[in-house]
Input
Amino acid sequence: MRVSVSSFFLLCFFALLLPVTDSRAEPTLTLLSADQIPPLVDDLDRRSLKAALQQSLAALEQKPDSQAFSFGQQQVSVGRVRDSLGAFLTLLDQPGDLALEAQREFDLYRATVPVLFTGYHEPELQGSFIRTERYRYPLYRPPTDLVQIDASRFTTKSKHALQSAQKAGHVYSFQRFPQDMYGRVANGRLVPYFSRAQIDAQHILAPQHRELVWLDDPIERFFLHIQGSGKIRLPDGTWFRVGYAASNGWPYRSIGKLLLSQGKLQSGEASAQGIRHYLRQHPAEQDRILFQNSRYIFFRVVSAGPLGSLGVPLTPGRSIAVDPNWYPPGALGFIRATKPYLEESGQVSWQPFSRFVALQDRGAAITGPGRADIYWGSGPQPEAGLMAQRGELYIFLKKS
Output
C-alpha cells in the first residue's frame, strides 16, 4: 500500500525512537577451555545432523560474508558461521572420533545463563475452503492494510559505524537495533494493528476477504498461531501446509502464565495439554483467556516445510528456535537437558540427553538468552507439549 510522505517520516521517527542499546555487563556466551568442554555425546543419528546443517548452509550461502549476526553481547560474521558449518560437515564425512576432532578444530562457547528448553511441533488441523457451521474459524492471509517496517533500514549508517568500531577478527562488540514492526496507517499516522480480540470477536477483517481456509476449532487455531506452521486436512482427505507470513506486531503474552497467576492452573500444569484441557473444560472463559494474547499471526501456503525463520525446512530433533538478538541464526549448537518420555500407561518419565543442533528458527515467546524451543516433528507430538526443562546451550565456531 502507499504511504504519504508525512507518514513515511513518522515511520522513520518511530523506528529511531526504539531502544537500541543493551547495558548489561555480564557476558552471555563464554569461551570454554579444553577441560571445561562437556562430553559431546549425541543421542540422534548422524544422518539427521547432516541434513540439518546442510539446510543451514544453504540458507547462509544466500547472505554476504560481511553480514553480522548477534553472538551474545558481540557479533559474528556470516562468513565465520558458514565456514564453521562447512568444516563440521567435513568432519561428519570422515572416520574417527567426532567429539575429539570437534574439540581440536572448534571453539566452544557456553551460554552463561541456564536455558529453559521447551518443545514445539507442526500440528495437523481440520479445515475447509468453504465456510460451514463446522468450519467457521478463519485462518487469515496478511491483510491489505498491514504495514511492515524494517526499522533497521533507518539506522544503517549508525549500525555500520558501530560494526567498524573495535573490530577484532570476526567477533566484535555492538549495540542492538530494532527489526521488523507492523502497524497500519490511519489518518496519516502509524497506529498499532488490530488486536486478537478485534480480529476474532469483532470480525474486523471480514470485509477484506483474506480468509485462507476455515478451521473447525478455535483452540487449535490459537495453538497454530503459536507454532507458526501446520498442516490443514480438507474434508476430501487432501492436505496442504501453511506457514508464517506476518504478525499484527503486538507482543506475545503467555496465557499459561496468566492461568498460573490466577490460580486456575497449578505449577507443572501450564503445558500445552494442560492449557487445552482447561479451555475445553471452561468454554465460557475461552475467548476472554485467548484474547489476553493480543498477538495475531497471518499465514501463507508453503510447498515444503515446516519452514523456520531461515526459510529452510526444519529437521525433527535437530532444529531449535532461539532469540536472534542473542544467538546467530544457522549456527551449530549443542544442548544438554532432560526430555520427557511418555509411557504406554500415560505416565511421564524424564531422561537426560544431549545432541548437536542447528539454530534455524525464532518465536515470539522465545526471547532473551535463556530460552530455546526444540522442534519435535510433524503431527501429534505429545512430548513436545510436555517439554519444559532447564539445561545448557553451547555454540560452535571454527577456530580462527
Notes: Residues 5-118+150-184+312-398 form a domain with the Barwin-like endoglucanases fold (CATH 2.40.40.10). The chain has two domains: 5-118+150-184+312-398, 122-146+195-302. Residues 1-24, 161-178 have pLDDT under 50 and may be disordered. The longest strand covers residues 348-361.
